[in-house]
């Protein structure tokens, strides 16, 4: 274990305080365990509001901005300064925060991003209109030099594989390279 992480593993014994210096057997699956725990904790809202990925919890905004006939967004009847879709999204964010808090979980204040028009999540750009390919991933494919070895082909397939959801018949196209 990294020296900075060792204090996090402190435990008391009759012989005094100790900390781990290596990762315990079985802890290598801790990421999967955390993911399964998050899925269980948030199961009521999965697919509608969130879909946790390892230790990342993305809160999906409403699928409508509640646009009115005059192309403005609908507001709350009791407070016209708050747009309805923003309110609904913040209610979902609050539900997730409270649910995780209720079971003793925490979120990193440094990493949290609230109310963004777009976000990069698992190398995809997510916007109100849906999922888009991240430009840096597309540029990597554009800049790829002709490959000269099997290892370079595998590297290319790994890079372009991130974009497979945007490429029609990707499996058929990639098959000759496998």
From TrEMBL:
Source superkingdom: Eukaryota
TM spans (from-to): none
InterPro entries: DNA/RNA_pol_sf, Rev_trsase/Diguanyl_cyclase, Viral_Replic_Matur_Polypro
Gene3D superfamilies: 3.30.70.270
Name of the featured protein: Uncharacterized protein
The organism's taxonomic lineage, starting at the top: Eukaryota, Fungi, Dikarya, Basidiomycota, Agaricomycotina
């Amino acid at each position: 274990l990294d020296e900075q992480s060792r204090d996090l593993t402190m435990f008391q014994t009759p012989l005094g305080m100790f900390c781990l210096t290596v990762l315990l057997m079985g802890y290598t699956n801790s990421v999967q365990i955390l993911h399964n725990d998050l899925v269980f904790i948030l199961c009521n809202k999965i697919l509608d509001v969130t879909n946790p990925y390892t230790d990342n919890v993305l809160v999906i905004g409403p699928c409508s901005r509640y646009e009115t006939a005059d192309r403005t967004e609908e507001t709350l009847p009791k407070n016209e300064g708050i747009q309805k879709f923003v309110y609904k999204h913040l209610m979902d964010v609050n539900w997730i925060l409270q649910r995780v808090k209720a079971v003793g979980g925490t979120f990193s204040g440094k990493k949290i991003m609230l109310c963004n028009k777009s976000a990069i999540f698992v190398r995809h750009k997510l916007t109100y209109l849906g999922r888009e390919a991240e430009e840096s991933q597309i540029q990597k494919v554009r800049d790829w030099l002709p490959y000269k070895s099997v290892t370079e082909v595998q590297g290319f397939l790994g890079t372009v594989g991130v974009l497979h959801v945007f490429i029609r018949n990707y499996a058929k196209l990639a098959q000759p390279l496998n």
